Amino acid sequence: MIDTSALVDNLVSTLRDIPDLIVQMNGAHDRIYSYHDHYPKRSSLPLAIHQMPAPAIMVAWQGTAAGSFGGTDVWKHQVTLYLRARETPDAEPPAAYYRLFRLITKGVPASAGVPMINATIHPSCYPMDLPSIQRQTDAEGLDYFEVTMSFTEIGDE
């Protein structure tokens, strides 16, 4: 089984390599970052979500489950991206979260040369399974979006 912290960090690096996504982060690469559990300093994902700046994308590993791929038993790693869009003027169309999701799935990282949906994020995993996006609300009543992804480890043949 792979070290899932490497998967998360590789995903962050790959997202940071999408020029149009960095534009959506107001040009700041560090607005796309990893969340790694470090007890006791970082032991509350809801608090980390609440403290996210806008714009930002925070990437966190959610868990791993056994699965099957092509008749082989494999590990499937679930990762969630937490999105806060940048402030948009009233004159701009309300497309911030749609644009982020499109770039996360269809944006082309300079180092990969293929859309994210087809990019190899970790050498021991297939490209991401089809992701989903949904609205969530934090404790203060502020909306944000979650993009859930799954990466399947390449099974031994």
The topology string of helices and strands comes to HHEHEEHEE
- Describe the sheet with the most strands: 5 strands, mixed
Radius of gyration: 16 Å
Helical region count? 4
Could you tell me the mean pLDDT? 92
Quick tags:
single chain; 157 residues; alpha+beta; 4 helices; 5 strands
Structural account:
- The structure is a single chain.
- The chain is an alpha+beta fold and 157 residues long.
- Helix content is 23%, strand content 30%.
- It has 4 helices and 5 strands, in the order ααβαββαββ.
- The chain has helices at residues 4-16, 19-24, 45-50, 96-106, and strands at residues 32-35, 56-69, 72-84, 132-137, 143-152.
- It has a 5-stranded mixed β-sheet with strand order 1-2-3-5-4.
- The longest helix has 13 residues, at 4-16.
- The protein is globular and about 50 Å long.
- The protein starts with a helix and ends in a 5-residue tail after the last strand.
- The model has no long low-confidence stretch (mean pLDDT 92).
Describe how the helices and strands are arranged.
Elements (H helix, E strand, L loop, with lengths): L3 H13 L2 H6 L7 E4 L9 H6 L5 E14 L2 E13 L11 H11 L25 E6 L5 E10 L5
Parallel strand pairs: 1-2
Antiparallel strand pairs: 2-3, 3-5, 4-5
What's this entry about, in short?
The chain is an alpha+beta fold and 157 residues long. The chain is 23% helix and 30% strand. A five-stranded mixed sheet has the order 1-2-3-5-4.
